[in-house]
Amino acid sequence: MTSRFSTPLLSPLYPKPTYHYVGAKMLLALFNTSDESLQKLLPSFFRPSDMKLAGVMFAEQPCKETGTFMESALLVQCVFDNHLTGQEEVGVYFAHDFVDTDVALAAGREIWGYPRKMAKISMKWTGDRLVATTSRGGKTLLKATCTFTEEGEWIDSGPNLNVKMIPSADGSGLDVAAVSAAYLTYDVKKGRSGNPQIEISGGADYGLSGIDIESIMIGLYFDMDITVPPGKTVMALPQSET
């Protein structure tokens, strides 16, 4: 038992982090949203940033430890109180997250608390134009289209933030309720930028209805290596707050 990190015990699904994404390809399409959307997307213990910044992310993640997977997400920039340091920090909250392998889903949820669901995710180039989509249950949930015309620069927006929740076996409550932070590092090889189009849909069944896109900021594409370390529990949550 002490030598195993995940189940099944006879063939663990994933190893311990740190994970290394070598040759990752990432699209970020950033936009400003409304106070109403932020109230819907952010738990009460996170505060919106002054920019009211959100974004959709699509990525091909060639993970050395768990195999290559596709990922997409709806992200929100926020401010949080790090109970480990006593400091206020800026981070990126994963309101929705999608992947296309069981290993990525289980490892992301069980280690860091990424709210992952299975989906079909594609990134298709035609010349300098990239179209990225996420679909689940036959519905397109996220879509971004961008033609890249300029160089792009990476700006680190702080740790990846997730609410890690694990229910009790008897269904009476939660065994774990906490905010985790993962301080990823990025080695950018190439960056490009352009003016994107963004679509968020899927209806109430997927929790994506009523997300306002008030103004579109920029589309960014990067070829990079990403290091994903073990996370840190930066805030313990009572069940009433989750």
Jot down its keywords.
14-stranded mixed sheet, 2 helices, Acetoacetate decarboxylase-like, 242 residues, mainly beta, single chain
What does this entry look like structurally?
The radius of gyration is 18 Å and the shape is globular. Strands 1, 2, 3, 4, 5, 6, 7, 8, 9, 10, 11, 12, 13 and 14 form a 14-stranded mixed sheet that branches. The longest helix is centred in the middle third of the chain and has 11 residues, at 102-112. The chain has 2 helices and 14 strands. The chain has one domain (19-241): Acetoacetate decarboxylase-like, CATH 2.40.400.10. The model has no long low-confidence stretch (mean pLDDT 94). The chain has helices spanning 35-41, 102-112, and strands at 19-32, 47-48, 53-63, 67-82, 87-99, 116-118, 120-126, 129-136, 139-151, 160-167, 174-182, 185-200, 215-228, 232-236. The protein has 242 residues and is mostly beta strands.
Helix/strand layout:
Layout: E1 19-32, H1 35-41, E2 47-48, E3 53-63, E4 67-82, E5 87-99, H2 102-112, E6 116-118, E7 120-126, E8 129-136, E9 139-151, E10 160-167, E11 174-182, E12 185-200, E13 215-228, E14 232-236
Give a summary of the structure in a few sentences.
The chain is mainly beta and 242 residues long. The chain has helices at residues 35-41, 102-112; strands spanning 19-32, 47-48, 53-63, 67-82, 87-99, 116-118, 120-126, 129-136, 139-151, 160-167, 174-182, 185-200, 215-228, 232-236. It has one domain (19-241): Acetoacetate decarboxylase-like, CATH 2.40.400.10.
